[in-house]
Queue: 2 jobs
Job 1
Amino acid sequence: MEPFVKLEGVVAPLDAVNVDTDMIIPAVYLKSIERVGFGPHLFDRYRYNEDGSENPDFMLNQDAYRNSKILVSGPNFGCGSSREHAPWALEDFGIRCVIAPSFADIFFNNCFKNGLLPLTLPEDDCRRILDKSKDNPGFQLTVDLEAKQVRDSDEEIVVDFEVDEFRRYCLLNGLDDIGLTLQHEDAISAYEARPPPPPPPPPPPPLLYWDSGFDVMYVQSLSMIATNKTRMVPAITPYPTLVKNLSNSS
């Protein structure tokens, strides 16, 4: 996973609330478990007309926003079904940071696991960024994860933010779940190289004793065999030889 330290790039404004994962990447394209190839279908139903041509009114089809690295939108971004393809599509297009007042939980978690920063900022700050990016096509922001700050070039917008320290560590170092595990590769290899443990000792023989009051024989496993010379009580572990010998001895 590519580390995320400081991102400088064009901001694409998507002035909408409740942008769901089916809007981000329609279900018809969820035919692969590879993380690449989804960028051309990002916001597919809005980017393209029915004949497959580009919709010139959609911001990602406009020259100023074609190479955007940051997306700013409204509350509850990423709601809907829990498809990991949504952050895959954003990243494959080139977007590595989404700024919004709030995110759906599963989308939020999936972003961190795939190298994207879902950045929660106050709604007033999101509105300022949205308005400035719409009024100034090509407007750029710097998202500094080390300094935990968002700023523009003229510093009209300077916003400090907080992010979970463990998730911040993973993004700064480019670590997904597999990368975190491989940090302990030496210890894992040493464990796997150990000689196999000795086999367990064999189980002890059953302990048998006779209860003359009930004419019952008990065994260690709590199975039991009983006889009164006319019938036999069913046992979990039968011992027909023992029963036969016991009957013959009386």
Note: The CA atoms of residues 35 and 88 lie 6 Å apart.
Job 2
Amino acid sequence: MKVPVEADIEGYDLIGDVHGCYDMLVRLLLKMGYQCENGVYAHPCRKVIFLGDILDRGRGIFDTVRLVRAMVDSGNAWLVLGNHEVNAVLFAANAFLGGKLRARPIRPLLQTLKQFRDHQEEWRDTIEWLRGMPLALEFPEFRAVHACWDQNMIARLNSLNPSSNLADDAFLLSVLFREGEAHRILDRLLKGVNLRLPDGYSIRGGDGVERSRFRAIFWEAHPTTYGDLLFVPDRVAPELRDLAFPEQERSLLTYYSKHEKPLFVGHYWRRGAFSLFAPNIVCLDYSAVRGGRLVAYRTERGVAGLEVGRMVSVGASSELSAL
């Protein structure tokens, strides 16, 4: 979805994965000069862009959803969908159809469903609201998506579903069935590039789980080995890093050129000192719900390029993961 110039906005504050950390979100907004009036956090000349995954895991999901929705509905924020919002919509769609379609994993949703247990009408309304939120946003000076900007997938999304959201029933059902282009598009935009490891190899992610697939970076122009594609935090056998990446699998990759607009993503559970993925790509997910930091990047109109110094954050609170 392309967003025209918003003349009254001097800059945007892009916020990474909140995951129900309501207290941290309030503290971050206050730190950036937002004030709450009539239940809505607002700034006189700035607007927030949430990069998805406001749901699940944390202890303040219900209040987080209300806060974010109030900001979006009043024109003080944008929200791009993350994989957790899409999973919630698909879970609700599957339940509406009697659970007869492919089952969705609900464990990440447990805290969300628990906190909305006594607010069923509001939960149904929230699902309908989420269906109207965009999957990606393109502003004149930058782009925002939850995990990966793949221009070919974006083009196909705009062709298949010009609204670029989940409001269309046929598009939603295609995703629910995990069939056709719709599922592949969402998988790429909301989860990134996920590839299978060679036989006999596994990878231990930052969450400690062993997997046979890995998240590949999408800002390497000419990768030749698996090491060229691995995220730094992932732990693998040293010999895998030097193993040649198969030519026949290069069609599965995508590349975001350093000449493209600045890109903001979440999703990747970063930790440690702030840094950029690439000169024009920054991830703002710093594992807030797992004892990390809730991070925002503050843009200014007319300022080109990305700078680590424009990232601000607040530390962990008592609202850590309940799972």
Note: The domain at 11-191+260-315 is CATH 3.60.21.10 (Purple Acid Phosphatase; chain A, domain 2).
